[in-house]
């Protein structure tokens, strides 16, 4: 009976959370961006000083991926990262709900813009890691020409997200076989295709373990498959948040060689190497709290475990390194 009661309450709880999130998003979106960033930085500052999983996971990832930093430097970078993490999520309301032209006016500079030029009848695969303002990167890409964006349907705010991402003309392709067909057709027409490349795939097929900052990461092969099937070139693009609320800088970077290799591990390694290059441009703005190494090779120790304190995180890192 208790389980049945909880199941009955679940839709109502989800609906309430969705309505509350919408109200908060609309309220935040009306604020000046400088205020939004201050609110986000304040939330991140609290997260940096209050034990929680996001704080622990960010430090675990940083300690594993950037071992040349001292523990104190890793902690300081983690704390800066959480402030930027707060800015990222608070500014999403502004980027989703303000007019597209107003959001795009925040772009102050585009580096490597020539890489966005397409050859006639040949599409372009554009990879945007979870770095800086990735929602602005997607909006900017769609403003350059016909675009299909690979999209994961969400539990909350799904229609708001779809409307925000489509308002400059992008077609949203769900993460399904049908969505992949949309991506292929778009590339064959000579359009852009936008993909977030640094999330852990759910399915066993279409992914392999490849090094990401030297740590095995379960990595998608979709980019490789699309590039090989259509002959479309691949680039990376992200929106770096500038200091003192000065707007954003778009970076376009050519993908490393091998991303279209017939060898799956070579292709996935090239993909991750491109993400690394993007991340090191502004490492404090990457999504370090994300559990990128949740799935581990057989026999490898789990990473996102243990107490929430910094000492515990460093102890986990030592166990992982010792296990090889």
TrEMBL record:
Keywords recorded for this protein, A-Z: Acyltransferase, Cell inner membrane, Cell membrane, Membrane, Transferase
Superkingdom of the organism of origin: Bacteria
InterPro entries: LipA_acyltrans
Subcellular location: Cell inner membrane
BP terms from Gene Ontology: glycolipid biosynthetic process
The keyword Iron is annotated on this UniProt entry: no
CDD domains with a match to the protein in the record: LPLAT_LABLAT-like (cd07984)
Gene Ontology molecular functions: acyltransferase activity
GO-annotated cellular components: plasma membrane
Pfam families listed in its UniProt record: Lip_A_acyltrans
Transferase found in the keyword field: yes
TM region(s), chain numbering: none
Designated name of the protein: KDO2-lipid IV(A) lauroyltransferase
Organism: Thiobaca trueperi
